Amino acid sequence: MTYPTYHNLIGGQWLPAAEGRTILNLNPANHSDVVGAFPSSHAGDVALAVAAAKTAFASWRLVPAPKRAEILMRAGLLLKERKEQYARQMTREMGKVLAETRGDVQEAIDEAFYVAGEGRRLFGQTTPSELQNKFAMSVRMPVGVVGLITPWNFPMAIPSWKLFPALVSGNTCVIKPASDTPLSTYNLVQTLVDAGLPPGVVNIVSGTGSAVGTPLVEHPDVRAISFTGSSAVGSLVAQRAAAGFKPVSLEMGGKNAQIVLDDANLELALDGALWGSFGTTGQRCTATSRILLQKGIAEKFTAEFVARARKLIVGDGLDESVEVGPQVNESQIETSEKYVAIALAEGAKLLTGGHALTDGAYAHGTFFEPTVLGGVTPSMRIAREEVFGPMVCLIEFETFEEAIAIANSIDYGLSASLYTKDVNRAFTAIRDLEAGITYINAPTIGAEVHLPFGGVKHTGNGHREGNGAIDFFTTWKSVYVDFSDRLQRAQIDNAE
After folding, report:
1. Do 388 and 474 share a domain, yes or no?
2. Which domain holds residue 43?
3. What pTM value is reported for the model?
């Protein structure tokens, strides 16, 4: 069997892992299809990459921000040209259907164009001084070398959310792509190189979280960490980074609720629920994993939703007729099976799905049936814990106030959705739902790059991707220019 071998990008050179080991990147729809062999790196490789980034920072920080932005603009144009190629390669390594991988690449294109505009908008402030003949202002400064740790479910979009704002702000980067989906990150970085990014400004170190992620977080020359992944791992990242007093941006899990009131447009709500629950095979932090149904429409909605879920076509995402691709690996299948068993043991009812698909065309991949669980109560684990698979639970409620309370009763707070024709309840939900993203008459998925992305509680630590990323990747410097030609003592010489 022949397949390509990829290396780490360190200081502008493609280098194998120091120990020479590799990890095979397999197509989750067909494990006999090897996408490539990628480095299985360790702390020594991380140290080389950080050193290269530190060297590059000395000159990159001095490149005017509009010039840095021009590279991002060129990268966006190249991504447009390569969109279909990169989408197909992403489907091979991640599994989601072509329509979605095209959307993933498009999100990187959108991010490139949006952040390129920020090259002329890294605004500071000017403000009056409290003393005569003194000028006061604040300016944004780059942080330095930043470490980026990205997940497998959006293997080009999410790296672009981190790389592009970091770069336009004047930082240099070491990125660790997810070991399940490294090729898409390689494609993104290669596009930046082709657009004119200087050597060492972005470095890729591929490998596992423990072997690469941990030393990246702990390296003393890494000034900040941006992480997207599970809440459990994010907690460890934050703890390790805290020892070095370095800021951390955490974007983590979700257990997102779609609330459907009796007055909702049911056809629209059904469309949104199906897409939110099973888009990306449920492997989104914003996926709809709880559907809260007011009792007046619960029976009708449930029957139609289950019927639609049963009709979804599961298969290889390269087939344009397929609607739900594979789960990314065997571990995810095991998690889905585990949570079905937990739900049934706690009294939930399996309305459809619930099993791995292993026969015929599914024999060589990791496929799971679209699964709907009914009879769920808010206290059940299936209603509180993230599964990250094609699985959704249905919860019935009496009043609007009860629905809000159920939606807020979990540890996560990423995305929430309400379907209603009542404008008063819509605005009440916008105010009261504990979620960083709230949709009215739309599913829980579908964020756009120019708005803040992130959540509250165990979903995040207050930082945001999207238009909030510049705030994380810059640090403020206050500047005072005294042109009085004499000593002036603030809070002393201006006192009455």
Report:
1. no
2. 8-252+460-478
3. 0.97
Of 112, 390, 394, nearest to 269 by C-alpha is 394
Q: Tens place of pLDDT for every residue, the chain, 496 residues?
A: 799 999 999 999 999 999 999 999 999 999 999 999 999 999 999 999 999 999 999 999 999 999 999 999 999 999 999 999 999 999 999 999 999 999 999 999 999 999 999 999 999 999 999 999 999 999 999 999 999 999 999 999 999 999 999 999 999 999 999 999 999 999 999 999 999 999 999 999 999 999 999 999 999 999 999 999 999 999 999 999 999 999 999 999 999 999 999 999 999 999 999 999 999 999 999 999 999 999 999 999 999 999 999 999 999 999 999 999 999 999 999 999 999 999 999 999 999 999 999 999 999 999 999 999 999 999 999 999 999 999 999 999 999 999 999 999 999 999 999 999 999 999 999 999 999 999 999 999 999 999 999 999 999 999 999 999 999 999 999 999 999 999 999 999 877 6
One domain, residues 430 and 306: yes
Residues 57, 167, single domain; the answer is: yes
Answer whether residue 367 is part of any domain.
yes
Shared domain check, 262 and 175: no
Indicate whether 184 and 299 sit together in one domain. Answer: no
Q: Supply the CATH number for residue 338's domain.
A: 3.40.309.10
Residue 449 lies in a domain: no
Cα–Cα distances (Å) from 465 to 140, 157, 227, in that order, read: 18, 11, 11
Which residue numbers are catalytic?
251, 285
- What is the 3-state composition of the chain as percent helix, strand, coil, each rounded to the nearest 5? 40, 25, 35
- DSSP conformation class of 198: P
- Say if 191 falls within a structural domain: yes
- How many angstroms separate the Cα of 423 from the Cα of each of 293, 418, 426, 441? 18, 11, 5, 11
